[in-house]
Protein backbone atom coordinates (compact mmCIF):
# COMPACT_ATOMS: atom_id res chain seq x y z
CA UNK A 1 0.00 0.00 0.00
CA UNK A 2 2.76 2.46 0.94
CA UNK A 3 4.54 2.69 -2.42
CA UNK A 4 1.43 3.70 -4.26
CA UNK A 5 0.42 6.01 -1.40
CA UNK A 6 3.75 7.80 -1.45
CA UNK A 7 3.77 8.12 -5.25
CA UNK A 8 0.39 9.88 -4.98
CA UNK A 9 1.48 12.28 -2.25
CA UNK A 10 3.12 15.67 -2.83
CA UNK A 11 6.17 16.48 -0.71
CA UNK A 12 6.28 20.12 0.37
CA UNK A 13 9.42 21.51 2.00
CA UNK A 14 9.36 24.92 3.68
CA UNK A 15 12.79 26.49 3.23
CA UNK A 16 12.07 30.20 3.54
CA UNK A 17 13.86 31.00 6.81
CA UNK A 18 16.88 33.29 7.10
CA UNK A 19 18.83 31.10 9.51
CA UNK A 20 19.80 34.06 11.67
CA UNK A 21 21.05 31.87 14.55
CA UNK A 22 23.72 30.40 12.26
CA UNK A 23 25.21 33.69 11.10
CA UNK A 24 27.67 34.43 9.59
CA UNK A 25 27.44 31.06 7.75
CA UNK A 26 23.98 32.01 6.51
CA UNK A 27 24.88 35.55 5.39
CA UNK A 28 25.17 34.21 1.84
CA UNK A 29 23.98 30.56 2.00
CA UNK A 30 20.41 29.61 2.99
CA UNK A 31 20.48 27.30 6.02
CA UNK A 32 19.08 24.22 4.16
CA UNK A 33 21.98 24.54 1.68
CA UNK A 34 24.81 24.54 4.23
CA UNK A 35 27.27 21.66 3.71
CA UNK A 36 26.30 18.86 6.12
CA UNK A 37 28.09 15.50 6.11
CA UNK A 38 29.42 16.17 2.61
CA UNK A 39 26.20 17.42 0.95
CA UNK A 40 23.94 20.46 1.14
CA UNK A 41 21.65 19.67 4.09
CA UNK A 42 18.51 19.60 1.94
CA UNK A 43 19.88 16.71 -0.15
CA UNK A 44 19.65 14.38 2.85
CA UNK A 45 15.94 15.19 3.25
CA UNK A 46 15.27 14.87 -0.49
CA UNK A 47 17.01 11.48 -0.48
CA UNK A 48 14.70 10.31 2.33
CA UNK A 49 11.65 11.60 0.42
CA UNK A 50 12.75 9.76 -2.73
CA UNK A 51 13.53 6.57 -0.77
CA UNK A 52 9.99 6.68 0.66
CA UNK A 53 8.56 6.73 -2.87
CA UNK A 54 7.46 10.37 -3.24
CA UNK A 55 8.44 11.91 -6.57
CA UNK A 56 6.88 15.37 -6.77
CA UNK A 57 8.46 17.99 -4.49
CA UNK A 58 7.45 21.62 -4.03
CA UNK A 59 9.96 23.91 -2.33
CA UNK A 60 8.46 26.95 -0.58
CA UNK A 61 11.32 29.43 -0.73
CA UNK A 62 11.91 33.04 0.28
CA UNK A 63 15.42 34.05 1.43
CA UNK A 64 17.99 33.58 -1.40
CA UNK A 65 15.36 31.61 -3.34
CA UNK A 66 17.53 31.48 -6.48
CA UNK A 67 20.19 29.36 -4.75
CA UNK A 68 17.82 26.37 -4.52
CA UNK A 69 16.79 26.49 -8.16
CA UNK A 70 20.39 26.91 -9.36
CA UNK A 71 21.45 23.78 -7.48
CA UNK A 72 18.45 21.45 -7.87
CA UNK A 73 16.97 22.65 -11.16
CA UNK A 74 13.91 20.59 -12.11
CA UNK A 75 15.09 17.76 -9.85
CA UNK A 76 15.76 15.29 -12.70
CA UNK A 77 19.43 14.86 -11.68
CA UNK A 78 18.15 13.63 -8.31
CA UNK A 79 15.38 11.38 -9.64
CA UNK A 80 12.66 13.81 -8.55
CA UNK A 81 10.36 16.44 -10.02
CA UNK A 82 10.99 19.68 -8.15
CA UNK A 83 8.97 22.89 -8.42
CA UNK A 84 9.44 26.21 -6.62
CA UNK A 85 7.09 28.74 -5.06
CA UNK A 86 8.63 31.98 -3.79
CA UNK A 87 7.19 33.92 -0.85
CA UNK A 88 7.80 37.59 -1.54
CA UNK A 89 6.68 38.45 1.97
CA UNK A 90 7.13 35.95 4.84
CA UNK A 91 3.77 34.22 5.41
CA UNK A 92 4.47 32.05 8.47
CA UNK A 93 4.12 28.26 8.51
CA UNK A 94 0.40 28.18 7.65
CA UNK A 95 0.65 30.88 4.99
CA UNK A 96 3.66 29.12 3.50
CA UNK A 97 1.69 25.86 3.17
CA UNK A 98 -1.27 27.68 1.59
CA UNK A 99 1.10 29.46 -0.80
CA UNK A 100 2.11 26.21 -2.58
CA UNK A 101 -1.49 25.07 -3.25
CA UNK A 102 -1.39 25.87 -6.99
CA UNK A 103 1.50 23.42 -7.50
CA UNK A 104 -0.02 20.45 -5.68
CA UNK A 105 -1.06 17.48 -7.83
CA UNK A 106 -2.61 15.06 -5.36
CA UNK A 107 -5.23 14.89 -2.64
CA UNK A 108 -2.56 14.68 0.05
CA UNK A 109 0.67 16.50 0.85
CA UNK A 110 3.44 15.65 3.30
CA UNK A 111 4.93 18.84 4.66
CA UNK A 112 8.47 19.14 5.98
CA UNK A 113 10.38 21.80 7.82
CA UNK A 114 13.52 22.40 5.77
CA UNK A 115 15.82 22.64 8.79
CA UNK A 116 14.85 19.47 10.66
CA UNK A 117 17.09 16.42 10.51
CA UNK A 118 14.88 13.39 11.07
CA UNK A 119 14.77 9.64 10.88
CA UNK A 120 11.09 8.83 11.14
CA UNK A 121 9.55 6.24 8.82
CA UNK A 122 7.70 8.44 6.31
CA UNK A 123 5.66 5.55 4.89
CA UNK A 124 4.44 4.64 8.37
CA UNK A 125 3.21 8.22 8.84
CA UNK A 126 1.37 8.09 5.50
CA UNK A 127 -0.12 4.68 6.25
CA UNK A 128 -1.50 5.78 9.60
CA UNK A 129 -2.94 8.95 8.00
CA UNK A 130 -4.91 6.96 5.44
CA UNK A 131 -5.97 4.11 7.75
CA UNK A 132 -7.39 6.55 10.28
CA UNK A 133 -9.12 8.60 7.57
CA UNK A 134 -7.39 11.64 9.05
CA UNK A 135 -7.73 15.19 7.73
CA UNK A 136 -4.31 16.05 9.17
CA UNK A 137 -1.65 13.85 10.75
CA UNK A 138 1.21 15.29 12.79
CA UNK A 139 4.46 13.50 13.43
CA UNK A 140 4.80 13.62 17.21
CA UNK A 141 7.98 12.85 19.05
CA UNK A 142 8.44 11.58 22.59
CA UNK A 143 11.16 13.59 24.36
CA UNK A 144 12.69 13.37 27.83
CA UNK A 145 12.05 17.07 28.62
CA UNK A 146 9.09 18.50 26.69
CA UNK A 147 9.06 21.86 28.55
CA UNK A 148 10.94 23.68 25.78
CA UNK A 149 8.39 22.62 23.14
CA UNK A 150 4.73 22.86 22.34
CA UNK A 151 3.01 19.72 23.65
CA UNK A 152 0.40 17.72 21.75
CA UNK A 153 -1.66 15.30 23.87
CA UNK A 154 -3.60 12.54 22.11
CA UNK A 155 -6.42 10.23 23.23
CA UNK A 156 -6.33 6.40 23.23
CA UNK A 157 -7.05 6.31 19.48
CA UNK A 158 -4.20 8.70 18.70
CA UNK A 159 -6.54 11.60 18.03
CA UNK A 160 -5.11 15.00 18.98
CA UNK A 161 -7.00 16.57 21.87
CA UNK A 162 -5.16 19.90 22.29
CA UNK A 163 -2.23 22.07 21.24
CA UNK A 164 -0.44 23.47 24.25
CA UNK A 165 2.20 26.20 24.31
CA UNK A 166 5.45 25.69 26.21
CA UNK A 167 4.67 25.06 29.85
CA UNK A 168 6.61 24.20 33.01
CA UNK A 169 4.32 21.27 33.77
CA UNK A 170 3.54 19.51 30.48
CA UNK A 171 0.77 16.88 30.60
CA UNK A 172 2.49 14.74 27.95
CA UNK A 173 5.98 14.01 26.62
CA UNK A 174 4.73 14.28 23.00
CA UNK A 175 5.90 17.28 21.00
CA UNK A 176 5.18 18.55 17.51
CA UNK A 177 8.13 17.40 15.38
CA UNK A 178 7.27 19.62 12.41
CA UNK A 179 6.32 17.03 9.77
CA UNK A 180 2.65 16.86 8.72
CA UNK A 181 0.30 15.15 6.29
CA UNK A 182 -2.50 17.45 5.10
CA UNK A 183 -5.45 16.54 2.93
CA UNK A 184 -5.68 19.00 0.08
CA UNK A 185 -9.06 20.45 1.15
CA UNK A 186 -7.57 21.46 4.50
CA UNK A 187 -4.84 23.44 2.69
CA UNK A 188 -7.47 25.03 0.44
CA UNK A 189 -9.32 26.30 3.52
CA UNK A 190 -6.29 28.21 4.91
CA UNK A 191 -6.79 31.95 4.17
CA UNK A 192 -4.52 33.20 1.40
CA UNK A 193 -1.93 35.96 1.33
CA UNK A 194 -1.43 36.72 5.02
CA UNK A 195 0.83 35.58 7.83
CA UNK A 196 -0.65 32.48 9.47
CA UNK A 197 0.87 30.15 12.05
CA UNK A 198 -0.06 26.52 11.53
CA UNK A 199 0.56 25.79 15.23
CA UNK A 200 -1.33 28.74 16.70
CA UNK A 201 -4.16 29.24 14.20
CA UNK A 202 -4.70 26.36 11.78
CA UNK A 203 -4.45 23.37 14.15
CA UNK A 204 -6.54 24.81 17.03
CA UNK A 205 -9.25 25.78 14.51
CA UNK A 206 -9.30 22.23 13.08
CA UNK A 207 -9.91 20.89 16.59
CA UNK A 208 -12.70 23.42 17.17
CA UNK A 209 -14.35 22.20 13.96
CA UNK A 210 -13.98 18.62 15.24
CA UNK A 211 -11.98 17.54 12.20
CA UNK A 212 -9.93 14.37 12.27
CA UNK A 213 -6.47 15.42 13.50
CA UNK A 214 -4.23 12.53 14.53
CA UNK A 215 -0.72 12.11 15.87
CA UNK A 216 1.80 9.57 14.63
CA UNK A 217 4.03 9.06 17.66
CA UNK A 218 7.55 7.63 17.62
CA UNK A 219 11.00 8.15 19.07
CA UNK A 220 12.92 8.41 15.81
CA UNK A 221 16.04 10.52 15.44
CA UNK A 222 15.12 14.23 15.39
CA UNK A 223 17.09 17.47 15.56
CA UNK A 224 16.28 21.06 14.65
CA UNK A 225 19.47 22.26 12.93
CA UNK A 226 18.92 25.94 13.80
CA UNK A 227 21.75 26.60 16.27
CA UNK A 228 25.51 26.15 15.81
CA UNK A 229 25.54 23.42 18.47
CA UNK A 230 22.70 21.48 16.80
CA UNK A 231 24.16 21.99 13.34
CA UNK A 232 27.53 20.52 14.39
CA UNK A 233 25.91 17.62 16.28
CA UNK A 234 23.50 16.84 13.45
CA UNK A 235 26.30 16.72 10.90
CA UNK A 236 28.35 14.53 13.24
CA UNK A 237 25.38 12.18 13.81
CA UNK A 238 24.96 11.76 10.04
CA UNK A 239 28.65 10.96 9.56
CA UNK A 240 28.59 8.42 12.39
CA UNK A 241 25.36 6.80 11.18
CA UNK A 242 23.33 7.82 14.23
CA UNK A 243 21.06 9.95 12.04
CA UNK A 244 19.97 8.09 8.89
CA UNK A 245 20.60 9.34 5.34
CA UNK A 246 20.35 7.27 2.15
CA UNK A 247 23.28 9.34 0.80
CA UNK A 248 25.67 7.97 3.42
CA UNK A 249 24.74 4.28 3.59
CA UNK A 250 27.96 2.28 3.82
CA UNK A 251 30.06 5.43 4.29
CA UNK A 252 29.67 6.22 7.96
CA UNK A 253 32.45 6.44 10.53
CA UNK A 254 34.53 8.84 12.62
CA UNK A 255 35.11 11.27 9.73
CA UNK A 256 33.91 12.11 6.23
CA UNK A 257 36.82 13.47 4.16
CA UNK A 258 36.38 14.59 0.56
CA UNK A 259 38.71 12.77 -1.85
CA UNK A 260 40.29 16.06 -2.92
CA UNK A 261 41.24 17.09 0.64
CA UNK A 262 44.80 16.64 1.94
CA UNK A 263 45.37 15.39 5.49
CA UNK A 264 48.87 15.65 6.97
CA UNK A 265 50.65 12.94 8.93
CA UNK A 266 49.54 12.41 12.52
CA UNK A 267 46.39 14.52 12.11
CA UNK A 268 43.44 13.19 14.14
CA UNK A 269 39.90 13.42 12.76
CA UNK A 270 37.28 12.32 15.28
CA UNK A 271 33.66 12.56 16.33
CA UNK A 272 32.01 12.63 12.92
CA UNK A 273 34.15 15.48 11.57
CA UNK A 274 33.60 16.54 7.95
CA UNK A 275 36.39 17.87 5.72
CA UNK A 276 35.29 19.54 2.48
CA UNK A 277 36.72 19.72 -1.03
CA UNK A 278 40.26 20.96 -1.44
CA UNK A 279 40.75 21.48 2.30
CA UNK A 280 44.24 21.06 3.74
CA UNK A 281 44.74 19.69 7.25
CA UNK A 282 48.25 20.13 8.64
CA UNK A 283 50.37 17.52 10.39
CA UNK A 284 49.38 16.82 13.99
CA UNK A 285 46.17 18.87 13.82
CA UNK A 286 43.22 17.59 15.88
CA UNK A 287 39.69 17.99 14.56
CA UNK A 288 36.85 16.77 16.75
CA UNK A 289 33.10 16.93 15.93
CA UNK A 290 33.62 19.78 13.47
CA UNK A 291 32.44 20.81 10.00
CA UNK A 292 35.23 22.07 7.74
CA UNK A 293 33.92 23.65 4.53
CA UNK A 294 35.62 23.61 1.12
CA UNK A 295 39.08 25.10 0.66
CA UNK A 296 39.86 25.57 4.35
CA UNK A 297 43.48 25.47 5.53
CA UNK A 298 44.16 24.21 9.03
CA UNK A 299 47.85 24.44 9.85
CA UNK A 300 50.06 22.07 11.84
CA UNK A 301 49.17 21.35 15.45
CA UNK A 302 45.89 23.31 15.48
CA UNK A 303 42.99 22.01 17.59
CA UNK A 304 39.41 22.49 16.35
CA UNK A 305 36.54 21.15 18.49
CA UNK A 306 32.78 21.47 17.83
CA UNK A 307 33.36 24.24 15.29
CA UNK A 308 32.13 25.18 11.85
CA UNK A 309 34.84 26.68 9.62
CA UNK A 310 33.54 28.52 6.55
CA UNK A 311 34.87 28.08 3.02
CA UNK A 312 38.40 29.32 2.33
CA UNK A 313 39.19 30.23 5.96
CA UNK A 314 42.66 29.65 7.39
CA UNK A 315 43.42 28.47 10.94
CA UNK A 316 47.02 29.08 11.99
CA UNK A 317 49.47 26.64 13.53
CA UNK A 318 48.75 25.58 17.13
CA UNK A 319 45.58 27.71 17.28
CA UNK A 320 42.88 26.32 19.61
CA UNK A 321 39.22 26.74 18.63
CA UNK A 322 36.33 25.37 20.69
CA UNK A 323 32.60 25.92 20.00
CA UNK A 324 33.18 28.62 17.35
CA UNK A 325 31.87 29.64 13.95
CA UNK A 326 34.50 30.98 11.56
CA UNK A 327 33.16 32.90 8.56
CA UNK A 328 34.17 32.42 4.95
CA UNK A 329 37.73 33.53 4.13
CA UNK A 330 38.56 34.56 7.71
CA UNK A 331 42.10 34.12 9.02
CA UNK A 332 42.80 33.02 12.59
CA UNK A 333 46.48 33.55 13.32
CA UNK A 334 48.86 31.02 14.83
CA UNK A 335 48.51 30.31 18.57
CA UNK A 336 45.20 32.19 18.83
CA UNK A 337 42.62 30.75 21.20
CA UNK A 338 38.88 31.19 20.59
CA UNK A 339 36.21 29.61 22.78
CA UNK A 340 32.58 29.50 23.91
CA UNK A 341 30.48 30.58 20.96
CA UNK A 342 32.92 33.03 19.36
CA UNK A 343 31.84 34.01 15.84
CA UNK A 344 34.31 35.48 13.39
CA UNK A 345 32.76 37.32 10.47
CA UNK A 346 33.79 36.60 6.86
CA UNK A 347 37.14 38.00 5.78
CA UNK A 348 38.19 39.10 9.28
CA UNK A 349 41.89 38.55 10.04
CA UNK A 350 43.20 37.95 13.53
CA UNK A 351 47.03 38.17 13.71
CA UNK A 352 49.29 35.48 15.15
CA UNK A 353 48.77 35.34 18.91
CA UNK A 354 46.22 38.15 18.58
CA UNK A 355 43.47 36.66 20.71
CA UNK A 356 43.73 34.42 23.77
CA UNK A 357 41.46 33.29 26.59
CA UNK A 358 43.95 31.55 28.85
CA UNK A 359 45.30 33.26 31.94
CA UNK A 360 48.80 31.80 31.38
CA UNK A 361 49.65 33.89 28.31
From TrEMBL:
CDD domains: NTP_transferase (cd04181). One of its GO terms (molecular function) is transferase activity. Keywords: Transferase. Pfam families: GMPPB_C, NTP_transferase. Residues 11-238 form the Nucleotidyl transferase domain. Signal peptide: none annotated. It comes from the Bacteria. Residues 252-339 form the Mannose-1-phosphate guanyltransferase C-terminal domain. InterPro entries: GMPPB_C, Mannose-1P_guanyltransferase, NTP_transferase_dom, Nucleotide-diphossugar_trans, Trimer_LpxA-like_sf. Belongs to the transferase hexapeptide repeat family. This is NTP transferase domain-containing protein. It comes from Corynebacterium anserum. The lineage of its organism: Bacteria, Bacillati, Actinomycetota, Actinomycetes, Mycobacteriales.
Amino acid sequence: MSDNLAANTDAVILVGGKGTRLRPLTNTIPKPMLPTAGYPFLRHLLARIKAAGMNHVVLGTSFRAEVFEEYFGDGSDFGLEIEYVVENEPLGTGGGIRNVLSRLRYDRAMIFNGDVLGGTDLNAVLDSHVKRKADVTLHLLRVADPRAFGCVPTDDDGRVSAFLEKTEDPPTDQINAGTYVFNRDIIEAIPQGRVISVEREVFPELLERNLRVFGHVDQAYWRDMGTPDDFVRGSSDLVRGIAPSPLLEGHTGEAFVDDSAVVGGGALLLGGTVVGRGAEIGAGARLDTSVIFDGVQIEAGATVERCVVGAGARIGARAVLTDCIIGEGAVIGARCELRHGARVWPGVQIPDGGLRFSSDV
